[in-house]
Amino acid sequence: IAVFCLLLVVYGWPQAVRNIRQLSPTARIPMIVPYISVVVGGVLVLLKAICLMIADPERLHGDLGGTDSTS
After folding, report:
1. Confidence (pTM)
2. What pLDDT digit, counting tens, does each position of 7-18 carry?
3. What is the CA radius of gyration of the chain?
4. Residue 12: is it exposed, middle or buried by C-beta count within 10 angstroms (0-12/13-18/19+)?
5. How many whole angstroms separate alpha carbon 46 and alpha carbon 52?
6. What's the N-to-C CA distance of the chain in angstroms?
7. What's the rounded Cα separation, in Å, for the pair 60 and 7?
8. How does pLDDT run across 1-59, given as a tens digit for each residue?
9. What percent of the residues of the chain are helix, what percent strand, and what percent coil, each to the nearest 5?
10. CA 60/CA 71 separation, integer angstroms
């Protein structure tokens, strides 16, 4: 997932900058707005993936050992 998000950011940014002056035909907004949303989404998911990779799994999912602590 992290590699895919990195690809979205790396290839999405030049595409967004390339279309900075183009306007959408119907909404008349700059096309950088939808293109930059791909980059922002890629960055956010990449940050979440990194956080999940470095987080403590026991803190996220509770006791993963399956042992009963009542005995």
Report:
1. 0.73
2. 999 999 999 999
3. 20
4. buried
5. 10
6. 41
7. 27
8. 889 999 999 999 999 999 999 999 999 999 999 999 999 999 999 999 888 888 876 66
9. 65, 5, 35
10. 24
30: its two tokens: 């700059």
2-18 vs 32-54: helix crossing angle, rounded to 10: 160
CA 44: distance to chain centroid?
4
Instruction: Report the SS3 class of residue 34.
Output: helix
Q: Report d(CA 8, CA 35) in Å as an integer.
A: 10
Six-digit token pair at 41?
């989404």
